[in-house]
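Severity: low
Component: inverse-folding endpoint
Summary: output formatting inconsistent between runs
Steps to reproduce: submit the following structure tokens with default settings.
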């Protein structure tokens, strides 16, 4: 009958203390974390324990005066049905009272408006934090290369904006911006300049990464990673106290800037979802109906996930679809509207801050106007295949590396791991232009379409009219020679190929380290590089063979044959889709990024091809793979259960096991119930009529039972170990000398979900998924036979899939 429980050594202490529910805490850090946040105190003094004449009173917990009743332990699953029932009762009470007085009517209106007010506050707070993170990360990234003399707080671009001494070819150089070599040794050219700048780049990268991992380790172990696997689990009904707390928010915001600025192969977009959810969780405490109801709080967290993507990509609609498609477990229509409003407010706030100074919400916003050709769908599909292959490879390689980290001594040295990976990344990144720049700048460069004013190596085209090649001369004569590849473009191509390999390797080992690390930007960078390489190849092929029938309609004098930046964008979408398995939300995010509706078909073709290829090689996305790696109790809605097993095959107790531990509705004493709780670790007990007649009456949670007994001993006069426990509606006859009874019917769930022994497990799994159950009782002709918990189902599904059933534990 084991459930998501806390193995406690006793319950009659001054406070209800708990250990870990699933053998161990989450393996996020070796430090001990206090998860007391949000747990209501249990040691208040209550004057309601006695009647006015000091006569003993039966404990009736129907009013919510006893703290802790109806709340959940850390690492437990919430009861969705009970939470929704509580919310309906609260609404019914408010509606009835609103008809009685004007004050109650105003309270009813404010209660209905509070959800929209909360969305407004989440959007404002998340947008402001995202703007600050963008500005700080941009400045600290440039700090690795130099400093502005006009003010150290200016980044490179802002420093040179006001300068009148910049040239067209060297627009990023101005007297006000000094590299570290110029400041420290006074050299402006030569090998000394390169060596000093190289050294300072590595030192700054190591400092930023070291500070990030130390802060995470010391103050908020839950601030590492992207946070999306854990948020998916929390939204499914699991409780991880502290994961969305104030310390996690503060440390994640600071260390996210440090991690991105260090040059590691990671992004800030995934962690921004975690940041937005932390904002939502903190703000929920100011609204009673969300603070006291875990199901309502999860509706707010679903909207906050949309806000995170909205500020990460400047894509409010894509954010709402991302929340719906990827992270949310329960997403009613009301949440859809509120998510849209919150995402809108967040995007507006970020636009008002204008972190990049270009009136755009992201650094790599681009606009394409060149139409694409039907036959280009072939290379777009090829990019989709590449994205699917990359996604499948990345998931397997990263999970293997993370498993190695968990199961070997590597996991005992998180600081050393981060420092070593940062050192290798910085040493290898600095010599190559496209790995030295930040990933967002790289994507912006790759998405960019070459114009007359571009001085990038990627735009290193030249006219080869002096060539002896007849086809090339014909090309030049047709006015297309200006798009022939020159030496600068060839240099950029081999550098991009090298950058592609480095990005792939470093992304595998970086994701999962003990620093905030997102996956969106590195995956997009890999795809953008591959797409740009293919785009340039296609462009040169079309130009050099424009007289062929297949290319004849593509090229016209004075116009571009092919847009390589479009290929980069499609490749970015394909690789991100291969890793995350997003489809609809991914396409919408990408076209919101580019502002080009005409490119939806290429994006859809690449995204679907990527998903098909990746699904053929493995069904799980990277987030689901990490959920399974960490043993989170998550029932994936996409995973089908096709095995012909019955409830009797999964329920406990099994044959040969001792009978199920139960309470009787009368006839048990306080001492007997306390002994049963002390001797077991179950998180709840079925209540039956009697041991001889095990007809099911209801189900009571361990936490509610413990708190009620503790409160009765403290505040109800005359309660002793021999006091009877009653779950009945009517009081049985008792002798005048008998100690007062403790009445606990109000904490009893009188309508627990039940199935028969012959119910197919396919149906049971569907019930657990769609209703969010914690447990289900198995009966036959009204007699209790056993119990099925969420963990039992997860273990059974793992066993049927030939996986280790014991992996469904927190480790």
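Observed output (run 2 of 3):
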């Amino acid at each position: 009958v084991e459930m998501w429980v806390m193995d406690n050594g006793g319950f009659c202490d001054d406070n209800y203390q708990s250990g870990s529910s699933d053998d161990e805490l989450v393996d996020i850090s070796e430090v001990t974390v206090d998860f007391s946040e949000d747990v209501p105190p249990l040691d208040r003094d209550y004057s309601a324990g006695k009647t006015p004449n000091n006569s003993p009173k039966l404990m009736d917990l129907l009013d919510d005066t006893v703290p802790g009743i109806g709340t959940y332990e850390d690492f437990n699953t919430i009861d969705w049905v009970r939470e929704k029932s509580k919310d309906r009762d609260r609404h019914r009470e408010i509606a009835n009272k609103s008809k009685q007085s004007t004050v109650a009517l105003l309270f009813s209106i404010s209660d209905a408006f509070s959800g929209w007010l909360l969305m407004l506050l989440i959007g404002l707070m998340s947008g402001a934090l995202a703007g600050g993170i963008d500005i700080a990360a941009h400045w600290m990234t440039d700090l690795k290369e130099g400093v502005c003399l006009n003010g150290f707080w200016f980044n490179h671009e802002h420093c040179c904006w006001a300068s009148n001494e910049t040239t067209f070819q060297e627009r990023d150089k101005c007297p006000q911006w000094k590299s570290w070599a110029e400041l420290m040794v006074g050299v402006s050219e030569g090998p000394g300049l390169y060596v000093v700048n190289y050294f300072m780049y590595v030192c700054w990268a190591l400092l930023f990464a070291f500070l990030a991992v130390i802060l995470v380790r010391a103050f908020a172990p839950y601030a590492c990673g992207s946070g999306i696997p854990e948020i998916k689990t929390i939204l499914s009904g699991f409780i991880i106290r502290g994961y969305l707390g104030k310390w996690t928010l503060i440390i994640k915001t600071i260390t996210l800037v440090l991690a991105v600025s260090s040059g590691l192969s990671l992004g800030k977009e995934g962690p921004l979802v975690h940041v937005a959810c932390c904002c939502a969780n903190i703000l929920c405490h100011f609204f009673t109906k969300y603070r006291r109801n875990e199901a309502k709080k999860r509706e707010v967290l679903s909207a906050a996930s949309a806000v995170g993507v909205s500020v990460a990509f400047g894509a409010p609609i894509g954010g709402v679809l991302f929340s719906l498609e990827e992270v949310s477990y329960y997403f009613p229509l009301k949440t859809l509207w509120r998510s849209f409003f919150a995402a809108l407010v967040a995007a507006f706030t970020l636009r008002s801050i204008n972190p990049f100074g270009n009136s755009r919400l992201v650094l790599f916003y681009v606009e394409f106007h060149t139409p694409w050709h039907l036959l280009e769908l072939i290379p777009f599909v090829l990019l989709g295949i590449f994205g699917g292959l990359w996604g499948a490879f990345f998931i397997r390689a990263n999970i293997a590396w993370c498993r190695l980290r968990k199961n070997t001594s590597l996991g005992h040295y998180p600081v050393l791991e981060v420092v070593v990976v940062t050192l290798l990344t910085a040493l290898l990144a600095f010599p190559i232009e496209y790995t030295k720049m930040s990933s967002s700048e790289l994507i912006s460069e790759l998405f960019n379409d070459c114009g007359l004013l571009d001085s990038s190596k990627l735009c290193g085209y030249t006219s080869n009219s002096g060539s002896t090649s007849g086809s090339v001369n014909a090309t030049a004569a047709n006015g297309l020679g200006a798009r022939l590849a020159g030496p600068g473009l060839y240099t950029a191509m081999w550098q991009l190929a090298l950058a592609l390999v480095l990005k792939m390797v470093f992304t595998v080992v970086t994701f999962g380290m003990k620093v905030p690390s997102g996956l969106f930007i590195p995956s997009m960078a890999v795809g953008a590089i591959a797409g740009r390489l293919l785009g340039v190849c296609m462009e040169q092929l079309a130009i050099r063979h424009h007289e062929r029938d297949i290319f004849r309609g593509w090229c016209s004098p004075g116009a571009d044959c092919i847009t390589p930046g479009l290929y980069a964008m499609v490749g970015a979408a394909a690789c991100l889709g291969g890793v995350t398995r997003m489809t609809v939300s991914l396409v919408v995010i990408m076209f919101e990024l580019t502002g080009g509706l005409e490119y939806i078909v290429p994006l859809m073709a690449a995204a679907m091809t990527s998903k098909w290829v990746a699904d053929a090689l493995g069904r799980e996305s990277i987030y689901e793979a990490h959920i399974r790696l960490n043993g989170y109790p998550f029932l994936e809605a996409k995973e089908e259960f096709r095995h012909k097993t019955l409830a009797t095959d999964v329920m406990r107790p099994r044959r040969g096991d001792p009978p199920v531990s139960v309470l009787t509705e009368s006839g048990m004493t306080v001492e007997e119930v306390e002994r049963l709780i002390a001797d077991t670790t179950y998180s709840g007990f079925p209540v039956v009529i009697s041991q001889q007649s095990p007809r099911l009456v209801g189900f009571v949670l361990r936490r509610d039972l413990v708190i009620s007994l503790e409160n009765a001993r403290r505040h109800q006069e005359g309660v002793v170990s021999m006091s009877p426990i009653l779950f009945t509606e009517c009081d049985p006859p008792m002798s005048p000398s008998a100690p007062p009874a403790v009445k606990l019917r109000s904490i009893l769930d009188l309508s627990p979900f039940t199935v028969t022994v012959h119910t197919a497990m396919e149906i049971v799994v569907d019930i657990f998924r769609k209703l969010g159950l914690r447990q289900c009782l198995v009966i036959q002709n009204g007699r209790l036979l056993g119990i099925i918990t969420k963990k039992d189902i997860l273990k059974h599904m793992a066993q049927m899939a030939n996986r280790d059933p014991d992996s469904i534990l927190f480790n």
